[in-house]
Amino acid sequence: MNRNLTALAAREFDVVVVGGGVTGAAITWDATQRGLSAALVERDDFGAATSANSLKVIHGGIRYLQHLDVVRVRESCRERSAWLRIAPHLTRPIPVLVPTFGHGMRGPEALGAAFTLLQLLTLDRNRGLPNPERQIPRARLISKREALERCPVIEGPGLNGAGLFWDGQLTNPPRLVWELVRTAGRAGAEAANHCEVRGFLRRGGRVEGVTVFDTLGNDTFDIRGRVVINAAGPFAEQLYVRAGLRPSRDVPLSRDMALVIRRPLVRGQALAMQTAYRDPDAFLSRGARHLFIMPWRDVTLIGVNSIVYPGDPYALSPTEAEVEEFVREIDQAVPSWGLTASDVAMVYAGLLPIGSGTLRNANVSFGKRPYLADNVRTDNLEGLITAIANRYTIARGLGERAVDMAFQKLGRQAPACRTEVTPLLGGEFPGMDALVNEARSGRNGGLTPDQRERLARVYGSSWSEVARLVDQDSSLGGTLGSTSTLKVEVAQAVRHEMAATLADCVFSRTELGTAGDPGDDALAACAAVAARELGWGPERTEAELSAVRSRFRVGTPV
Fold this sequence. Notes:
Blueprint (H helix, E strand, L loop, with lengths): L4 H5 L2 E7 L3 H12 L4 E4 L15 E2 L11 H17 L4 E11 L6 H14 L18 E3 L1 H7 L8 E12 L2 H14 L3 E3 L2 E9 L2 E9 L4 E12 L5 H7 L10 E9 L8 E9 L9 E9 L2 E11 L10 H14 L10 E13 L8 E2 L4 E4 H4 L5 E5 L6 H16 L21 H9 L8 H11 L3 H10 L14 H10 L5 H8 L10 H15 L3 H13 L8
Parallel strand pairs: 1-2, 1-10, 2-7, 4-12, 10-18
Antiparallel strand pairs: 3-6, 4-6, 5-6, 8-9, 9-10, 11-14, 11-15, 12-13, 13-14, 15-16, 17-18
Helix pairs in contact: 2-6, 2-10, 11-12, 12-13, 13-14, 14-15, 14-16, 16-17
């Protein structure tokens, strides 16, 4: 799929989508699948902002039981199943251990009752998931002995067992966004990254398109559309402010932060441990909020730390003091790990819409629903829709509703949405074990069985398309430094996946820099492949390397 600005400017589309995160990509895919012509533009790279800066969890709804919010439990369960179904190479079930203490709200009786209710509300959680490796098992209580065998660090006064439930995990969120974009492109959509919307084309009280600045080519052009959907996430309202459509933002935002810890603190399952902060919306609370400690690749993800963020969304930059405070919070929850700020390999920070909260006590009340609005009601502007997700999990479902609204505004009957059951490109295979066996037994002179397995796990059923590049150029068969990321992944990113900067290659299309700094050798090797593919000279290559290295420093805007 190529970046074709001429095609974007040459026609009027049924739908123009602003924002290439998971919501915008899902909207574009749904629109094209239902027969609409669609264009998608993203100011940075696809999935590089809020969608990338998360805890990598596809929530199944258990967290909403304490809010007595059955609607959100059911919605989350449905959407988790959808992601496990349509992107099996980029999602997986993961068990989560919740220690129990005493016999009150933190005891096994209360948690067991919650598990029973969860079972009743999610009986259909595995519908359409015939492969057992994709299914979500029933939550259950386990003994103290089994709990300590699984995770010895939970030992403490009053420990009498644990609960075990399963959720979904994203192995590579930006990659999943790209697969949405790629699948939409295969269905006929036009898309371009590094294209910033600077204004809206208006005729009277109607929006008829957007004015776009190409940040790579330093050029401005217009994209015309019958309906414009603003899916720019936390930047959506700021875009209205910058375009003069609103005097200020109305929806408050939370800065959510997760930390990548260099060492693998948990293995085989995630761990939920309580912190000092409470959830102000909870009706049935087990006490303080939980930290979620997730095994991810060979490191650990811990989150989420949330505070109200009143500033410019484009200037989000977690400070060293905020990171150190969060590390202290983690250390209080699990002191045996002895974590310090030096253990932090990378900081993930994104913005989400919230209901209320204060900076003083950090007790953020999260928005209970994604935001979907027809702007004729909010701004007296026809032809404009705003869609903001409050969780990665529900982005597909929000996209479905946004496309339904677009059909209404176009005055056309909406065909049934099929994105809940249609595999993305790369997701068309019966099971990961079978796919891995196929890849390992394949024949490719420039790749080892382990490297072919890696391609299968990253690209799913499209792995052989990438491996074919090594058949054509054996120099692409090596790894980047001492990492497992292959040179061919960079070539694939540039040639076929719209990667235009080194950051696109390092943080979005490959896994190279997503768990922390991979080292100078790996970055230099990645830059060498990108430079050869894109025709960079030494000066441009060094500038790209400097920009990427700065992303690993705390205090750099994300």
